Every structure is written in C-alpha cells, then in structure tokens.
Amino acid sequence: MRPLIIDPTARADIARVIRHAEANPVSLIEITRAMSNPDLAVGNKPEHVCTVPIGYRCVFSIEQQPKGMCRHLSVSVVTLRVPSVEAMELLMGEFRFSGGLKNSEAWREDLGGGHTAINVIQLVDQTPSFTCPRCGRTSYHPKDIEHRYCGNCHAFTSDEAA
Ligand SMILES: [Zn+2]
Fold first, then answer.
1. What is the 82 CA–ligand 1 centroid distance (Å)?
2. At 17, which CATH number?
C-alpha cells in the first residue's frame, strides 16, 4: 500500500473540507448540471478538495440524493492506478463515514490515463452520532451519544461548554 499519512496537518485540511461541505450541501439540480458540464463538478472546486500525503486526492461533498442527504467521497492517487481498500477505509473514517466500505455504496470512476477513482456514498443520517464540540471528533458509540462523551478529549461535554 502506498503510504497514507494522516498527521495533524492532513486532519486539519480534512476538517476544512468537511466544514465547507456541511455548510454548502450540493443540491440534486447542481449534481445534474455537473453531469452535463464537468466544469461545475465539486472536484474542480478547491474548497471540496484536499490531498492527504502521499498523493491521495480526496474530493468530499454532502449532496442531495433521491434517497436523502449523503456523504460523497472520491479518492484517487496520482501515481497509482487505484486506491487500496485499506486506504479507502482509513480515509472514510476521517471523513466520518460509519461502518466503512461494507456500509456504503461504492463505485469506480475511470479518470483516463489508467487511473481510477473510488467513489463512496453514504446516507448522512443513517447512524446516530455525537460530534464533540471541542475537537470535532464524531463517535457512533451509543454510550458516547447518550452521555456526550468524547474519547479523544476523554471528557464529557455539556451544551454549555460548546
Ligand atoms: Zn473531543
């Protein structure tokens, strides 16, 4: 597997893209438009794109699908034909997908020149979750949700603290 380095810098960059995606969900109409005009695709908007070392290009958006609001992550690697399953699972966790590939819809996208992007999509509201207001980490553990506990901060969080 090509090294995938999720360091604090990469995490901050991922958080930037997640924040933008959550604040700017893509409508069904915009998706349809982008299909006929690739210039409008989110992959061409820097706010939706980050590169996780080494060379993993991630395009992330929250988009309206007929079945509901979905997370959509597309990953390609500059020097590889296709990202590995292991890398996909790791990146999906960082982009707050729950349950990995087996819990998502995935498909391959031919980028030309022998490169393939892996796309994954998952309903946003599929799983209840608790996102720590202090560090932004999301947990899907029922006990964490019930007690608003963050395993990253090792702390319980009240609404007042947020
Ligand atoms: Zn936290």
1. 33
2. 3.40.1720
Task: Enter the tokens of residue 33.
Answer: 């438009």
Q: Are 31 and 63 in contact (CB under 8 A)?
A: yes
Residues near ligand 1 ion, CB 5 Å cutoff: 132, 134-135, 137, 150, 152-153
pTM of the model: 0.75
Q: Is residue 51 part of a domain?
A: yes
Residue 72 falls within a domain, yes or no?
Answer: yes
pLDDT at 161: 45
**Beta-carbon neighbour count of residue 17 at 10 Å?**
20
Tell me how many domains the chain contains.
2
- Buried b vs exposed e over 103-138: b needs ≥16 C-beta within 10 Å? ebeeeeeeeeeebbbbbbbbbbebeeebbbeeeebb
In the prediction, which pLDDT does 113 show? Answer: 86
Q: Which domain holds residue 42?
A: 8-123
Is there a single domain that holds both residue 74 and residue 143?
no
pLDDT 10s digits, 85-126: 999 999 999 999 988 999 999 999 998 888 899 999 999 875
- Same structural domain for residues 87 and 134? no
